[in-house]
Structure formats: C-alpha cells, structure tokens
Amino acid sequence: MNALSNVDLSYNHLRGPLPKSRVFTNLSIEAFQGNEDLCGNIPGLKQCASSESHTPNRKQKLALVISLPLLGALLLGALMGIFVFYSCRLKRLPSTQHQDQHKDGKSFFSVSTFNGRETYEEILNRTEEFNEAYCIGMGACGSVYRVKLSSGDIVAVKRLHSSSEEINHTDFLNEIRALTRIRHRNIVKLLGYCSHAQNSFLIYEYLEGGSLADILYHKTAENLDWTKRVNIIKGVAYALSYMHHDCSPDIIHRDISSKNILLDSEYEACVSDFGRSKMLNPNSSNWSNIAGTFGYVAPGN
Description:
The chain is 35% helix and 16% strand. It is α+β, with helices and mostly antiparallel strands.
C-alpha cells in the first residue's frame, strides 16, 4: 500500500519488528502506543534485538547457497583431473618403464603377466635351455624346473611339452585363468607366465618340500608323522573349500592327487596344477568329460 500516508496501530498488542515501508518511517510514537512488544527504528520504540543479526544471517545463508555448489564443482573437477592424470600415466607405463623394471629380475613378481625379453632369456640361460639337470618333476602337460635368478630368488618354472600342442595350450590358458582369479595360502602362487613360439611356461613360487607323492614314495615318509599328515589334509581342505564356496565363479580342480599337492619347509600344503580345472557357470548345468589321475577320480565320475 504505497499510497497509504497515515495509520494508527495503537493498543493492538502487536509484537515484532515494524515493516520497512515508507508510511511507518513518518509516524509518531503515539500511533504505536499499547504495543509493548513492538520494536523498530521509530523514536520512542525499543530497538529490535534481532534486527542487526537478521540481515547478516540472510547474507550468510545466501553465501552458503552460492559457495557450496562452487566448492563441490571445484572438488569434482580436481578429482577428475587427478583421475585423468593417473590414467594417462598408467597407459604410458608399459612403453616407458617396462623394460627398466625387468633389469632387476624382480618386476614380474608384482604382476600376473610379463613378456620381458630379458626375463625370458635369463630363464633360458639359467636352465641351459631347459636342461634335464634342472628338472625337478614331470607331468602329462609339462616339466617343472628349479631356477635361481640373478636376483637370488628361486622360482619353479613349468614348461609345457611341445607335443599335443592344442591340449597343452588349453591347459596353459586354464591354469592362467584360474590362478589369476584366486589368492589363498594353500593354493600355489602364480608369479608370471610367458607365451612364446618355442617355449611356453608358467612361473610359480618355489616350495622346498616338493610334492606329497615324492615324500610318500621315498624314505622321507618316515618323517611324516600324524601331526604333519593332519596339517596337510587341513591345508588341502581349506583350499578346496575356498575354490568351491568363496570364489566367483566356483572352481573345480578335477585332478587332486598327491603329485599336485606341494609342501613348503614347514609341511604346509599348497594345491597346484590347475590345467584341468573348470570354472562353473551358476546359471546353467555343468557337464564335462572324465578328467584327472586314475586312482584319484571321484567314484561318482
């Protein structure tokens, strides 16, 4: 009501601050008598206690409304910038740092794949091109060699046989798929692999105790007391429970035999040789041909 020039609000028991309209600034105190709780800038009225703090609060709220989205946008932009920076850096690693990392002989221990020429040549040199003198075991798919690298680390290298190339290649890929998906103290650790036209091999951690089959078939079986035997059984059970219940998808080994159970120096068991393993599809039935070592195949097969 901008045209209003005079108003009398006396004795209405009003409270709160006066509006800031022009008409109220020209009125005398008599127009506001009888309103004890009324406050404002009119001479004779008490000053509003919240009049000075009301405006700053509004300003603060407005500042928050404006600044918070800006801060959020800046933070999001910074995070995106960091992500792009590290993504570009990781993409450049194979071409800029891969060869230098292989010079210390240890780089492939931190990743599941490697194809460094220096590592390949070092394994060939250390085994004198897979001389039988370095062979510590033979199986249907390949031979296992003990290799001491220039770094001082000892690894077990399983070289696939050149015969039955198609079958060996399938076993080779099966073992890589299985062991790169799982990590368990009772499952042998795959440190790396190399696929080459002349030599394809897998690199594992080296276990000093050898296979359970070697111990059982030699005089060293006398040292295998019941405490150690129970500990070996428990280790294999833990590994199978992990593969059958804690993996996604579940993994069926299909060749649990004494030759595929490796032992460390403390007789801790590790399941190895996943070449015949099978990953189960939970959304369909799973059928396969009979696989495994005769004498160890489950009766249901």
